Amino acid sequence: MYVKRALIKLSGEALSGPIGAGLHGETLGTIAADIAAAARAGHEIAVVVGGGNFFRGVQGLAKGLDRPSADSIGMLGTVMNALALEHAIEAVGVPARAMSAIAMPALCENYARRRALDHMANGKVVILGGGTGNPFFTTDTGAALRAAELGCDALLKATNVDGVYSADPKLDASAVRYESLTHADAIRRDLKVMDTAAFALARDSGLTIIVFSLRNPGCISAVLKGEGLATLVTP
Ligand code: UDP
């Protein structure tokens, strides 16, 4: 499937590369170059970044924080990633705009749907931090929400494996990769590739999710052209 307007979901972990936490410069640069190449090729791109490389709400619970406070810290982590990716994409010559669901006007624009659409139409990559702006949600759900409201053709969910398997392919040699499945299948089988709220939102808005591996160079550009291995989750 060729994807003209895409929402790409990158976990925080994806930006931490081999160091496993925080930001890894080389990994950030590789991902930024791939996104920049796709933007130059004419795709309209919004990116929702996670924050797990800095902080997840559940970690805060273990430290005695309440959920809303812990999630606020988690959302701030996603804004840090958005600012890092904005810089990395601009460093390779493509304009980018970080936008936050939580107002931080000294750091970046507030997220506003019409403004994000204008940026994308003008060739800027939009990087969306802050998730949904609410505690008790994840950036996967934020990605489904933004993909629906920005009228994206698909949500590209970057993972460590090249699609959805019947079992963990690292643990079970007989695991098979699905070419496609429905949102209802994904919810019924409780597939962990995205949370149920994200699948439900995608189902209700008729949004296709493309699950692909971020491991190969140029993978984002390839998936947007409909090339390479991936699993399509469709209505
Ligand atoms: N978060 C939140 N609301 C949102 C999105 C994220 O409260 O709409 C918080 C939550 O604490 C979460 C953290 O931000 O654990 C980081 O996001 P996420 O876990 O989705 O990041 P990823 O696993 O994709 O790196």
Automatic annotation (TrEMBL):
Pfam families: AA_kinase. Residues 17-22 are annotated as: Involved in allosteric activation by GTP. Pathway: Pyrimidine metabolism; CTP biosynthesis via de novo pathway; UDP from UMP (UMPK route): step 1/1. It comes from the Bacteria. The keyword ATP-binding applies. ATP binds at K9, L10, S11, G12, G52, R56, T159, N160, Y165, D168. Residues 4-213 form the Aspartate/glutamate/uridylate kinase domain. It is an enzyme of class 2 (transferase). UMP binds at G51, D71, T132, G133, N134, P135, F136, F137, T138, T139. GO terms for cellular component: cytosol. It is found in: Cytoplasm. It catalyses: UMP + ATP = UDP + ADP. Allosterically activated by GTP. Inhibited by UTP. One of its GO terms (molecular function) is ATP binding. Its EC number is 2.7.4.22. Catalyzes the reversible phosphorylation of UMP to UDP. HAMAP family: PyrH_B. This is Uridylate kinase.
